[in-house]
From TrEMBL:
NCBIfam families: efflux_Bcr_CflA. Keywords: Cell inner membrane, Cell membrane, Membrane, Transmembrane, Transmembrane helix, Transport. This is Bcr/CflA family efflux transporter. GO terms for cellular component: plasma membrane. It comes from Bradyrhizobium icense. The lineage of its organism: Bacteria, Pseudomonadati, Pseudomonadota, Alphaproteobacteria, Hyphomicrobiales. It is found in: Cell inner membrane; Cell membrane. Its main location: membrane. It is a multi-pass membrane protein. GO terms for molecular function: xenobiotic transmembrane transporter activity. GO terms for biological process: xenobiotic detoxification by transmembrane export across the plasma membrane. Residues 22-406 form the Major facilitator superfamily (MFS) profile domain.
Amino acid sequence: MSDTSADALAASGHRPMGFREFVIVIASIMALNPLAMDMMLPALPDIASAFHITSANRPQMVLSIFLVGFGVGQFVMGPLSDRFGRRPVLLGGMAVYCIASLLAIAAPSFETLLLARALQGLCTSATRVIATSIVRDCYAGRRMASVMSLAMMIFIAVPVVAPAFGQAVLLLTQWRGIFIVLMLYGVVALIWSALRMPETLPVERRRSLAVGEVFDAFRQTVTNRQTLGYALVAGGVLGSLFAFVFISQQVFTGIYKLGYYFPVAFAGVAVGTAIAGFVNSRLVGRLGMRAISHTALIGFVVIAATMLVAAKMQMLPLPLFMVLSISMMFAFGLMIANFTALAMEPQGHIAGTAASLYGSITTLLGIGIGATIGQDYDGTLVPFATGFLLCTLAALAVVLVVEKGRLFRPHVLKV
């Protein structure tokens, strides 16, 4: 589909919203997930204290169990949206998200809190899958990558401010107040989507929920060389990102002794991804998805190798760590939207199911890698840097296999 025809389809596909409002709404519903993740970072010590947790790494479960729910939920949200349409699944997911936030507010034990977090993650899987599916319903190819980059530029700004926002809430009240804020945000996003987001999947394009058809759609997704390959690549890259998020509070407050300034440092790192989203949205139409993402992946490898050498030599002061971390986030921002667009490009006829399976593969793989690296944290950056380098090398190897050794330029693949 050409950019011109994509624009024409979008003009009718997401009315009454114009392009700008469409991007903002997509970013807003996608932001439910990173907001629920990153606002919790400053609260982990308080949660550990409230529930008398003595293990230094156990509070990371507040983050990892949320992502498990997010990853598992994506298996079902896509097929449901392909059968019943995007709106009912999206609105239902956000409504249950608000209920899960209430459960977290009232949680009497750490186990109940983890249950609420898993349910929150499950519900935000609907927002992520449906958002990707809606964009694919309205756009294709480089235009889709551009739209996803603009949306991600906005929603990636959430991790920039979320820890500081969470810290501000903690200055006014206890950690449960964070869940009140999350619930209120969910209510606003739900109302906005209910009033303005149209149904983008026509009835004639909906698919049956028959087991055979669902598994056939899954089969089409996982047997497509380009889709599966870039799902694995994105999963490896996400593993590095999740590991960084899991240990960030311990690193900035433990190694670098930043205390209450941790959210400021985290925001400084996260802004690299937001900048990359804007850069990608402006360049992808001219340079293409492969040229940008493959170059960024090679840069990712160089950054990881530099960090590992510096960590092993105990020559990783805060300024150098910040530069490398910002560069890591910038490279990540140039990769993730393009990897998503490349994976989804052949799957327009089963966009919901494909987005569902793609999201599950990338998230669960990323969680497994990130949690493993995070639990190996020993008070130094060596375990993280080692895992970071291994993830990036594996991702580069998979890209070479998918593209048959030919990087940077598009070519016809047998799928």
